[in-house]
Specification:
Length: 459
């Protein structure tokens, strides 16, 4: 039996940065596609009136969305507003009144994680949780213990089936394409294992720095910001077994098996870095030991992937802005054409953004002429630069429909935290690196055995 569609959307944090940059433009796109026609009730403690919120939404859509089209006007017409302190029962009572006859509201918590328990308790005490669902943003906890505590707080009011933990990476078209490519093609499965794959690399590089979010970054760092969630989700898509059936839980079950099979990260398999100048950013401690770069070697103890090294790195102020996966295959077992003309190893390369989606296969072909000498070439399966649905449009649309496929489940979140939890509080060195480089030199030794780090080209 399918879940009932939401008949109202409640947006806590309606005047915040996330709502402005991502959520309101996504709602405009959902209205444009005919996927949203229910009341949108903003909740915040900003002292604004409804018309002032509408002015903010207009500005948001001009800067980040589709401008002032018909969908924008329909969004403004659907908009309601409740102003008040999340800690006060009267705020939640006024929200309950604004919901009217709505029986299945979707509560979106675009607020700091520290406020999640407070807001969820208020929703429950006011009677607004009955028949409802809740969407919570990342970061979902700071470590394993805090994630477990947060899950307990959510479950005081909502059953697990009604909790939608959002990770926008799961809604990206490129990440969806990676999953589809794996399981929609028969030719990949015979070589997608330890017998043919020599290593896996995942790189998330950004040219930008913290962009005025120094205070936030001091609280998270690269490991918490993108590795524990985004990068491990990508790895799960690469390494999971085929789901048993097409249901949401079958897919999520297989991903969680991957998280549980990853050996907890050890200190000797991690290199932390910090770009020169980070400590001068607004909101950053002058003696900060927070990493803006993290490189690691992981081990996946499963039948399919045992002894295949997995390398992940993510960092800011690097040479290029690109997220890319390289699945390196083993060399041919014999050098048929001699050492000088030896064929290079084949590979699969997945470009996951930010501005290009590409799937390519690395191969070798012969040069024209008498000599048996060759050159590397790439065979493009996909090189799409066309328009795509935004991650937030996809995920909010799925949450409104009650489809949990692209959302993190409680046991999956906790299993992912178990991977990085052992190193979070260790006093590991933070190595400086030059802005515009590929990170600290100390990271090079991690991937030396597989020929070094793959360096994605700038789009």
């Amino acid at each position: 039996m399918s879940a009932p569609a939401s008949d109202a959307l409640v947006l806590f944090g309606a005047t915040g940065d996330l709502a402005c940059r991502k959520i309101f433009p996504a709602l405009q796109a959902l209205i444009r596609s005919g996927s949203l026609d229910v009341p949108v009730i903003g909740v915040a403690s900003s002292g604004l009136a409804l018309e002032q919120l509408r002015q903010r939404v207009r500005a948001s859509l001009r800067q980040h969305g589709g401008g002032g089209d018909d969908a924008a006007e329909r969004l403004l017409a659907l908009l309601r507003y409740v102003d008040g302190d999340y800690r006060e029962a009267t705020t939640h009572q006024r929200l309950r009144a604004a919901l009217g006859g709505a029986r299945h509201p979707l509560h979106y918590l675009a607020v700091p994680p520290s406020l999640f328990p407070l807001v969820v308790d208020g929703i429950g005490e006011s009677g607004s949780a009955e028949g409802a669902r809740v969407v919570v943003e990342k970061p979902f906890g700071r470590d394993l213990a805090s994630a477990q505590a947060l899950n307990r707080a959510l479950h005081r009011t909502f059953a697990e089936a009604s909790v939608f933990r959002i990770d926008h990476y799961l809604g990206k078209e490129a990440v969806q394409n990676l999953l589809y490519f794996r399981f929609a093609n028969a030719f990949l499965e015979p070589v997608w294992n330890r017998n043919y794959v020599s290593s896996i690399q995942i790189t998330m590089a950004e040219e930008i720095g913290v962009q005025g979010r120094g205070r936030f970054y001091e609280e998270v760092g690269a490991l918490r910001d993108v590795v524990q969630n985004h990068m491990l989700q990508v790895l799960a898509h690469l390494a999971m077994e085929p789901p048993v059936g097409a249901g949401a839980e079958a897919l999520r079950d297989e991903k969680i098996k991957v998280f549980r099979a990853i050996r907890p990260l050890a200190a000797e398999d991690l290199v932390r870095g910090q770009y020169d100048g980070y400590r001068a950013e607004d909101g950053v401690d002058s003696a900060s030991q927070v990493e803006t770069f993290a490189a690691m070697r992981l081990h996946l103890d499963s039948w399919r992937w045992a002894d295949v090294p997995i390398y992940i790195r993510a960092g800011k102020r690097l040479t290029a802005t690109a997220t890319e996966v390289l699945v390196q295959l083993k060399h041919p077992p014999q050098r048929v054409f001699g050492a000088a003309a030896a064929a290079g190893a084949n590979y699969f390369r997945f470009r996951l953004g930010p501005d290009r989606v590409a799937i390519a296969i690395g191969a070798s072909t012969k040069h024209a002429g008498a000599a048996m000498a060759g050159e590397p070439v790439e065979l493009y399966v996909c090189n799409d630069r066309g328009p795509e649905m935004s991650a937030y449009e996809r995920l909010i649309g799925d949450a409104l429909k009650g489809d949990p496929t692209l959302f993190a489940r409680e046991d999956g979140v906790e299993a992912a935290w178990r991977v990085v939890d052992p190193v979070l509080k260790l006093p590991l060195a933070v190595h400086p690196y030059r802005q515009g480089s590929w990170g600290p030199q100390e990271a090079d030794a991690l991937a030396a055995s597989c020929g070094g780090w793959h360096r994605p080209a700038q789009a």
